[in-house]
Design a protein that fits this description.
The chain has helices at residues 17-28, 48-58, 72-82, 101-112, 149-158, 187-196, 225-244, 252-277, 283-295, 306-317, 324-337; strands at 7-13, 35-42, 62-67, 87-90, 96-97, 116-124, 145-148, 168-171, 201-213. The chain has 338 residues and is α/β, with parallel strands linked by helices. The protein has 2 domains: 7-213, Alpha-Beta Complex (Spore Coat Polysaccharide Biosynthesis Protein SpsA, Chain A); 222-337. Strands 1, 2, 3, 4, 5, 6, 7, 8 and 9 form a 9-stranded mixed sheet that branches.
Length: 338
C-alpha cells in the first residue's frame, strides 16, 4: 500500500449520541487526510443518524448509510461492501482515534509491506472526554515487531493480542472472502483467527493510538443467556481451530492455555449469570454448570488461579453455595460507595 493511499474508516452507529461527536471529530482530525469515512446508521432513534448527516454536509469525505437495525456485524458488513479504500479500519462510535492513528499505521503497512498493522490502545471510564493522561496502561501486551502468519496466530492463542477489530489497519484484500457473522454478539472472535490466518506479515506498533471507552451497559459486557451462548459458540470455533492445527502450528502448551482460559471465562460467566438471574437452579444455570464440568475434563485445573479452582469445586459439589457470591458483590458495592 502507498503511504498516501485511500483509507476507509467504517463506523457503525446505533444510539450513541452522547459519544458520537467526539468519535467523528477524532477521525476528521487525522493527519492522514486521504480518508473515506463510512457511517453506518443502524436504525438509531436518539438523534445519532441526524448527527451523521450533519457531518456528511460538513465534510465531503463522510458518507452515511441509513438502514434498519440489524446489529453490529451487519453494519460492519455493509461498510465492507461499500468501501473503496486500499486499506480499512474500524472505529466504535463511542471510542476515538489519536491524531496519528491512520498516518502511523499506514506508514508501517507501506514500509513493511504488511497485511495488518496493530497498535496499542488505552481504556477510559465511560463518563467524561477521552484524553490521554499518560498514566494509562496500554494494551495489548504483544511485543512490538513484525510477525509472520504462525507468529501472530500463536500470539492470539497466548492471549497477548486482542481480538477486537478497532485497533487495527487491514489491507483491503483480507476482506475479499471474510465477513462478520451476523446475529451474534462476539463477532470479533470468529473474525480474528480467520483474518490472522490470511496475514503473511503483521506489524505491531508500540504507541497507543486508540482510546477505548469502557461502558458498563455494553451488550458484550452483559451476562445474559444469549451473550454467554454466543461467546461459548465463538470460543468453540477457535478451540476447534487450535486442536486442528496442533502441533504443526500451535504447541500443546498453547492449546492447554486456551482451554484453561475458556474454563475460567465460563466460571466468570456463571457467577455473573447467577448474580443477575438469582436462580442457580434454573435450566440455563444447570446447563452452564454441565458445560463447565465438561470443559474441566480437558483443561488442566491445577494451572488455574486459586479463586477459579475454588469456584469450580464449589460448583461441582454444591452450586447453591455460590448464591453467596451475589450477596458478596452487593455488600462490596455498598461499602465502596461509602
Amino acid at each position: 500500500m502507498n503511504s498516501r493511499g485511500l483509507v476507509s474508516v467504517i463506523i457503525p452507529v446505533y444510539n450513541v449520541r452522547p459519544y458520537l461527536e467526539e468519535a467523528l471529530d477524532s477521525v476528521l482530525r487525522q493527519s492522514h487526510r486521504n480518508l473515506e469515512i463510512l457511517l453506518i446508521d443502524d436504525g438509531s432513534t436518539d438523534g445519532s443518524g441526524e448527527l451523521c448527516d450533519v457531518y456528511a454536509k460538513k465534510d465531503g469525505r463522510v458518507h452515511v448509510l441509513h438502514r434498519i437495525h440489524k446489529g453490529l456485524s451487519a453494519a460492519r458488513n455493509a461498510g465492507l461492501d461499500a468501501m473503496t479504500g486500499d486499506a480499512v479500519a474500524f472505529l466504535d462510535a463511542d471510542d476515538a482515534y489519536a491524531p496519528g492513528f491512520v498516518e502511523e499505521t499506514v506508514s508501517a503497512m507501506a514500509r513493511e509491506g504488511a497485511d495488518l498493522v496493530i497498535c496499542r490502545f488505552t481504556s477510559h471510564p465511560e463518563a467524561g472526554p477521552l484524553r490521554l493522561e499518560g498514566s494509562e496502561k496500554p494494551s495489548p501486551s504483544i511485543a512490538t515487531g513484525n510477525y509472520d502468519r504462525p507468529g501472530i496466530l500463536r500470539a492470539l492463542a497466548d492471549g497477548t493480542v486482542n481480538i477486537s477489530v478497532w485497533n487495527k489497519l487491514y489491507a483491503r484484500e483480507l476482506w475479499k472472502t471474510v465477513r462478520f457473522p451476523e446475529g451474534h454478539v462476539y463477532e470479533d472472535v470468529d473474525v480474528a483467527f480467520g483474518i490472522f490466518s490470511l496475514c503473511r506479515s503483521t506489524v505491531v506498533l508500540d504507541r497507543p493510538l486508540v482510546l477505548h471507552r469502557r461502558r458498563a451497559g455494553s451488550i458484550s459486557g452483559t451476562c445474559s443467556e444469549e451473550n454467554i451462548r454466543d461467546r461459548d459458540l465463538a470460543d468453540s470455533h477457535f478451540a476447534a481451530f487450535l486442536e486442528q492445527h496442533t502441533p504443526e502450528l500451535f504447541t500443546p502448551g498453547q492449546l492447554e492455555h486456551y482451554r484453561r482460559t475458556r474454563l475460567k471465562r465460563m466460571l466468570q460467566y456463571y457467577l455473573g449469570y447467577i448474580a443477575s438471574a438469582k436462580k442457580p437452579k434454573n435450566p440455563f444455570a444447570r446447563e452452564l454448570r454441565e458445560r463447565i464440568l465438561d470443559y474441566a475434563k480437558t483443561a488442566e485445573l491445577r494451572g488455574c488461579p486459586l479463586r477459579a479452582r475454588a469456584v469450580y469445586h464449589v460448583l461441582r459439589i454444591c452450586p447453591v453455595l455460590l448464591m453467596i457470591y451475589p450477596l458478596y458483590r452487593s455488600v462490596r458495592h455498598v461499602l465502596h460507595r461509602l
